Amino acid sequence: MSMWHGVIPAITTRFNHDGSVDHGFLAEHCRWMLDAGCVGIVPLGSLGEGATLSAAEKQAILQTCVKVAGKNPVIPGIAALSTAEACQLAQLAAAEGCSGLMVLPPYLYSTDWREMQAHMSAVISATELPVMIYNNPVAYRTDFVPSQIGELAERHPNVQAVKESSTDVRRVTAIRAELGQRLEILVGVDNAIVEGIAAGAVGWIAGLVNAFPHESVELFHLAQAVSAGHGDRERLAAIYAWFLPLLRLDTVPKFVQLIKLTQAMVGMGSETVRAPRLELVGAEREAAVAVIEQALAQRQELWP
Fold it and tell me: How many CB atoms lie within 10 A of CB 26?
């Protein structure tokens, strides 16, 4: 099976009280999700607070993930302020034994297609590893439309997939219409996963999976089965209805804090984040806790 098929967690990064990375928990967390049926790991992404990690921390995280993942692919997020730094990170990932790369536009700077194409091409060409293009115009202000994704795929044979996070599920259909079966399409927005699979997506770079891996894997496979015409529609509808309030936590600016809070409440993580992020407080935290508590109370009905 393709390395792009299935549930692939965009993993969070747990920090110790002194601010260092907790590698013991990182290893345990990876094993927990892989044992639940996830097919790979995406470290160093936005959810992993990659923008706040030093080069040495990134290297150590990759080493831990590769060691734990075994034959499962480790596909780090590759993003930086400069093209040169992104290329260096890509080459480091290759040297540490990663299986592929999730390549993003540069942090902060968003401009025209000529410059963004040059950046992406440089990073994609920095190694021979398979590449998943990450399109997230909401977060990065750069929108790779299907024709531009097609140009990158035509120029670079190692481009194999696209993580589509525009929040518009019609993009899945548009990419398929533009490129046929040339690329694998993965959903990158948690609360669009069922619709994305129905439109033809084959993978999910997931967020709430960090707290609910078994439930995420079941939702994914149910959606696939229903899309293929032989699944349990009633159970899919029930699980999706239960999961949606949680999945929506992945779609707001404080998604890192919210997902880490969820992990803490299921006993698999802590709320600790790295500045400039701060832990949730007051009414904002109370509202999130209420959503999570309700989901935990109702979970027993679906998984007795």
Answer: 22
- Interval 264-283: pLDDT, tens: 999 999 999 999 999 999 99
Evaluate the CA torsion angle 213, 210, 251, 104 in order and state its sign: negative
Distance CA 70, CA 47 (A): 22
Which token pair is 115?
Answer: 């410059």
Q: Are strands 6-9 and 77-78 parallel, antiparallel or unpaired?
A: unpaired
| CA 23/CA 14 separation, integer angstroms | 8
* pTM assigned to the model: 0.97
| Nearest to 152, CA basis, from 108, 105, 84 | 105
**Can you tell me the distance from the alpha carbon of 77 to that of 202, in angstroms, rounded to the nearest whole number?**
19
Residue 6 corresponds to which amino acid?
G
Tell me what the pLDDT averaged over the chain comes to. 96
Q: Is 22 left (phi over 0), alpha (psi -120 to 50) or beta?
A: beta
Is residue 220 very low, low, confident or very high in pLDDT (cuts 50, 70, 90)? Answer: very high
What the block records as the tokens of 213 is: 């891996």
Q: Do the bridges between strand 101-103 and strand 203-206 make them parallel or antiparallel, or are there none, so unpaired?
A: unpaired
The token duo for 95 is 């040297």
- Please report the DSSP string for 29-69 in residue order: HHHHHHHTT---BB-SSTTTTGGG--HHHHHHHHHHHHHHH
Question: What are the tens digits of pLDDT across the range 177-217?
Answer: 999 999 999 999 999 999 999 999 999 999 999 999 999 99
The pLDDT confidence band at residue 136, using thresholds 50, 70 and 90, is confident
Type and span of the H or E element at 132: strand 131-135
